[in-house]
Amino acid sequence: MMVPFRRKKSNKQFPVKVCTFDSELEFHLEHRATGRFLFDLICRTIGLRETWYFGLQFEDSKGNLSWLKMDKKVLDQSVHMNNGSCMFIFLAKFFPENVAEELVQEVTQHLFFLQIKQAILSMDVYCPPEASVLLASYAVQAKYGDYDEAVCKPGMLISENLLPQRVIDQYQMTPQMWEERIKTWYADHRGMSRDEAEMEYLKIAQDLDMFGVNYFPITNKKNTEVWLGVTALGLNIYNKENKLLPVTTFQWNEILHISFDDRKFVVKTNDNKNPKPVIFYSQKLRINKLILDLCVGNHDLYMKRRKPDTMEIQQMKAQAKEEKQRRQVERNKLTREKQLREAAEREKAAMEQRLMQLQEEMRAANEALRRSEEAAELLAEKNRLAEEEAMLLSHKAQEVEQEISRMRMTARKTEEEKMYLERKTQEAELLTARMMEESRKRALEADKLKNELIHARVAEKEAKEKLLNFLSRTSTESILITPSSSPESPMHEMHSYDLLADGDMEQLSLEIEKERVEYLAKSKQVQNQLKELRSEIEQLKIGENQCPLDDINAEQLRLGETKYSTLKKVKSGSTKARVAFFEEL
Question: 134: domain CATH number?
């Protein structure tokens, strides 16, 4: 049995990097791989079926941008190698006339959205300022979803590249002001999905004058520089200074034939009245080749749109419709679930709020209970201290009562002693007065006795004189008289009386002086006792119970005055003066 010969597969491969606006793909291709193989590989990788809009753009070895030809090998198209890899950009090469009707797949819409957005932000496609803000709001909706004030905080959109720099430079507005205006429209897009937001973005963008236009510099027969615009509807001619408004246009249904010869480009129309072709010149032959490639592709799509859809397109549209319906059902379901979840979250938030409130109330109640317990303990402690203080006060009250009783008893005793001493003082004063009276009486009696004694002595002297006279007359007779005679007896008796009178006076004077000394000593002793008693009771004196008389008495004691010294002082002066002083009172 013969084994068939099998050619060994070449292991030689080269790396390829393909960039889209949101990802980067890496492949390893064989050297014989064609552009179609790479393109289909990319489309299968990203799930793209509407492949007729897209192409692979690259930079050739001369630095010119070119589109990869599908029927040639990749390595045969002078692809510039960057770090050993072939670099390609996956771009929309042709544009639809109506994005809402023609773009079926969501991935197709997303790729167009990213490319148009980048073209607007890089100012390759002119966009008015107000349209730029509206498109920015849709771009934010597509990226972040529904507006949420809690998530979309101030300053979040400032770092995003949402507006062309040309628009920002045209107005004296801060980034915060632009952000507020974008947020105003952003909040109106609530409930819009990502594909819907991107489709709305494309609907607005397709109305821009430069949407889907590929511009090429050309000259006419007069060598006037103009712009040639290749679009999905036809060819547009623009002035050099104005890329927005074409000066003339040729739709694809009017064009019969397109060709070029070196730098000369010829466009023949189907107008029988004017069979003269449109001729213009490009700068390079390469540009004419690119123009022709774009014209052929756009013309084919233009004619294709006006024919019934192929089975593939019908199938894609049906699948897209079913997918949209399914997504709509899922979206409605998600919306309901979101609403239910939001309601549940609101209820949960309300319950959590209520729980937090209850916890706060419980915490407050526990805190109040703790404070109450602390207050109760404090009150109990205060009560215990109060009871102890009450007991101490009770003991002190008892002690005070006992002290008061003792003081009352002492005061009573002191009062009794005071009364006793006052009584004794009064008795002493009475005794002193009586003794003084007796002394005065005795002094009067002594004076009387002295006077009588003087009179008696005078009488005695007179009697002696008379006796001497008599004796001198009767000296003779007296010698004869005996001692027992009667005339001698009276004289004896008088002499005896005189001696007795002198002894009585001396004795009386001694007795009076003795009684006076005893009275003075006794009076001084009484005064000392009164002074001691006064100093003792002075400590027990209650000032508020003192009367004015007590104050007067204290003042007299301080000055050392007595009743007698006061009377003596008052008595001094003439009677007239004292009467006048009295009348002046």
Answer: 1.20.80.10
